[in-house]
UniProtKB/TrEMBL annotation:
Residues involved in phosphate binding: 100, 144-147
Record-given protein name: Uridine phosphorylase
Catalytic activity of the protein: uridine + phosphate = alpha-D-ribose 1-phosphate + uracil
A Pfam family per the record: PNP_UDP_1
Top EC class for this record: transferase
Amino acid sequence: LPERPGAPVEKNRLTCTFLSFHRPILVHNPHLDGLKDDVLYHFSLGTETHDLPAMFGDVKFVCVGGSPWRMKSFIEYIASVLGMEDPKAEYPNICAGTDRYAMYKIGPVLSVSHGMGIPSISIMLHELIKLLHHARCTDVTIFRIGTSGGIGLEPGTVVVTKQSVDANFLPKFEQVILGKTVMRNTDLDPGLAQELLECSKELNQFDTQLGNTMCTMDFYEGQARLDGAFCSYTEEDKQEYLHNAQKAGVCNIEMESSVFAAMCKMSGLRAAVVCVTFLDRLKGDQLTSSHDILNNYQQRPQILVGHYIKKHLTHKKDS
C-alpha cells in the first residue's frame, strides 16, 4: 500500500516465510521481556500461574469463531474426525475463569471463540498470539470459521477469503495508535487458500469459492442493510453499493477478517478465513431460512477445515 500523510504503512519485519519449517510465533513488543508475569487477562491465564508450554506446546492448528457454542461444537467435531473422541469427555473450557472467551483443546487442535466484531477479535488475538509465543509453539496454522452475507452467491456457499478488504474495497486494515493512523496489510496465505479449495473438491459436498471478503465495522448501516434502527439511503443506493463491491471481487461480508489477516501476518501465522454465506444480500437483508437449514450451513466451514486438518495430520503420520 502506498504511504499517505498521516497513515504510514507499517513495515513487515518478519524474516520467515510461510513455507519454512519450524516457524516461530512472532511478537513485536520489547516490553514483554520485562514482565515477570504476563497476565492473559481475558483468558484467565498467565505465564506465572500456568505452565503454558506444557498446556499448549503441541498446538499446530487453531480454529477461531464467534460464539462459544460454535467453538465447543467444533472441538467435538474435530475430536470425532481425528478419532480422539471420548464418550465421557466434557471438553472443559480452559478459559472457565472468565466469561469473555471460551477455549477448548484436543490433541494439537485449539478452538477459541472471539466474539463479534473487530474490537473483540483483536483483544482475543493479542492474547492468543502471546499464548502461542509463550508456549513456544511452531508451525501453527490458524483458521477463522464463521458465517457471512454473500453477494451474488447461493446461500450455503463457502467462501475462502483471498484478501480482506474494507468498506471502500481496499485491502487494508487501519489502526489508530497514539493518535496516528497506521495501515496494515490484509493478505492471507494464498497457498493455504488453494489447499482448502482442493479439500473442498475432495469432499464434494458443497460449493466453495475463492474471493475477497469485505470486513465492516457494523452489521447494519456498514453493510448497507435497510432493516436497522437507522437508515439514510434507498434500496437503489444499496444495490449500487453492493454491485460495486461485487465488481471489486467481493464475495461476502463479515466483521472480523481484516484485523485477523493483519495480526496473523504480523505474527507469522499461516492463516485462512472460511465463512459460509447465509443469504444473498442482493436479494434481501433478513434471514428467512429455517433453523435446521442454517445449522447445516454453519457446519460447512468446520467440515472443510476438519478435512484439511485430518489430511495434514495423516500425511505427517505417514511421512
